[in-house]
Amino acid sequence: MGPFLDFNPFDNLLCILLGISFTVWFTLLLVFIIVPAIFGVSFGIRRLYMKTLLKIFEWATHRIERGAKDNNHLLYKPYSNAIIAKEPTSLEEEINEIRRRGSNRDLDSASEFEMSDIFYFCRRGVESIMDDEVTKRFSAEELESWNLLTRSNYNFQHISLRLTVLWGLGVVIRYGFLLPLRVTLAFTGVGLLVVLTSIIGFLPNGRMKNFLSEQVHLMCYRICVRALTAIITYHDSENKPKNGGICVANHTSPIDVIILASDGCYAMVGQIHGGLMGVIQKSMVKACPHIWFERSEVKDRHLVAKRLSDHVEDTTKLPILIFPEGTCINNTSVMMFKKGSFEIGSTVYPVAIKYDPRFGDAFWNSSQFGMVNYLLRMMSSWAIVCSVWYLPPMTREEGEDAVQFASRVKAAIARQGGLVDLLWDGGLKRGKVKDTFKEEQQKLYSKMLVGTQEDRSRS
Amino acid sequence: MGSRASTLLREEEIEEIKKETGFSHSQITRLYSRFTSLDKGENGTLSREDFQRIPELAINPLGDRIINAFFPEGEDQVNFRGFMRTLAHFRPIEDNEKNKDPTASEPLNSRTNKLLFAFQLYDLDRDDKISRDELLQVLRMMVGVNISDEQLGSIADRTIQEADQNGDNSISFNEFIKVGNLQHIYVWAGDHYLILTYILLSVLQDCLCSSV
Fold first, then answer.
1. Which of A79, A368, B6, B31 has its CA 20 to 30 A from that of B201?
2. Which residue among B62, B146, B203 places its CB closest to the CB of A114?
3. CB distance A118–B62 less than 8 Å?
4. What is the pTM of this model?
């Protein structure tokens, strides 16, 4: 009887309450999130959530603007795309223009060099200092409206009590309710993936195994999608990648993989990591053939190409998913596609992914945050809203080399997603630009000078 | 881009910069955001490496000279005021400024200061003369390896011959200005867009006129 004498009936009640709330919590979770994920249906809760949020953001932005006007503050308003109106003229045209405007002579007696020629390069240089096309792609896009996240707002000052309260409420909801929910889901999703794919690995190869592996992958990715509250709209699903093809997409963050893989089954390509990622990768490959490379193998381009082409030739294997940019770009543009995946010669299925930045910026700035930090930020945003367009398949045409083919695919993706099509290499995020570009400009200018020399000697 | 761009720049500072350079409020905040995004070390100043990180500038044949123009003599860091002061040279001259108080000091984007900026791109050692060597250096930067030394030399000689008036085989700032013919080309596209100016020189034209 001893210890039970001290048992407080209040504790008993507390235990019962906790027990009930946990049960309710888990039932709700199961019914509204996990079961739909298994079957791929949706209750539409997320879309309703999205609409409500949009209304609140509009109100908040309106409030800030009004408050700024009242206080005679000038708001910092970012704007999209270029700030300098550049006409796409060539070096030669522009220098001739400078020379023409500076003189009243006829162009027939054009001299080979004018001291004013430096102004072409000077202007280009200062233009690029004020704003250039490349460096701004490696940091998060700026927003015009405020989405109640201080991390993406530059005008946040105390405007009104109501706004601050709303923001505070937002913080509480995001960190107190949404974040734990999402983390639970994420762990569930990943855990199920590892366990189930390992189990399936024991089955003999055959149609049953493929079918089950597909279902398991889809289910777990769908749970992960809900773990991020990702609201995805898929367009043109009739163009979905088929076996024996290569799917290419623009790259903004690691979440791209989850978004695409929750709507179709792909064979992933990548480097084997250590730690948790490595565990996931190893168990995934038991269920269906993904292509993982050791770190040393990544450098060997021939080996990579061989493994990829072996995979696509086998039509029982799933389409490969590749991100040819090679690095994460901030979703305002598409940068140079590396030609490796376009040399293989199979059908390419381009996919364009465009995130809606109003709900949370999905770009992973790997120099600023590590992976875990990034995932936490994602899970404490409001939602991740994006659109996925499946573009019609493309193949390499006669007389087109891999680089041209890659540019063509890139242009199609950029056009569909409303992104800027850039020729610059995403590797410029970390590395220096090659000198060949400077040499090209020098060559063009030299042709201008020497060209007139030849004309002179001819006449 | 830079964090809390507009809030880190105080209103008084913006006013001072406005007076000194003539840029508008929104242009200054925009450029400040640009400044902070280039400033990877986050210490409020830019070094030459920060400029070099802009790919379009790194491939510009005159990139190094342009970067140099931002750094005052002998220094390796430029702060936001210095940054704005250099960029101010590229604002066009607006009509209402011409009627301003003549006793006030010359604005940064005056004709003379624009020409001085251009002159200093050539004149590396700041001795107020563009020597044959300095001209050759700039030419070499612009053409790379595509033109031989002899050809380049003859181009340089010809240019100096046309411009030089006092026979010292180099081009002084007065010779630079006197034979200059100025034109402005505006690239205007609204308040948020930045305006750049061209300065055009026609060395040969005035030489012809003066020799007749």
1. B31
2. B203
3. yes
4. 0.73
